[in-house]
Predict the 3D structure of the following.
Amino acid sequence: MIALGCDHGGYELKQEIKQYLDEKKLAYIDFGTDSTESVDYPVYARKVVRAILSGECEKGILICGTGIGISIAANRYKGIRAALCTDCFMAEATRQHNDANILALGGRVVGPGLAVKIVDTFLNTPFSEGERHKNRIRLIEETED
Ligand code: RB5
């Protein structure tokens, strides 16, 4: 199950991504927002984070205007690795190296064609399981000061 969330700056791109997920018959839960009316991106980041941390969803896609604010908000939570990607190389590398569990996109940065390819790459690339990558993720999780 994939968790989707966005603010007003990401609403239109989220609609395109939902169309792609529907075509691929991939299950998702849309946590809003549901229009281009101005909202606060941390609220939607939290909804998607909660769905992942509870185990309801395995991965998430968060979209704001730039992808920056919503990824900063998501990365405040322990266990969340949200990666802002603007190309397929980044999407592939962040799955292989960082085991990213949230893809962040900028609705005002990437067009729908590229965004769908980034989503496809993110969802279909497994974590490498490499020991050095596991160790780095562990170091991130252990960092508290
Ligand atoms: C909203 O105007 C915009 O600030 C937001 O979508 C995002 O780009 C923040 O990082």
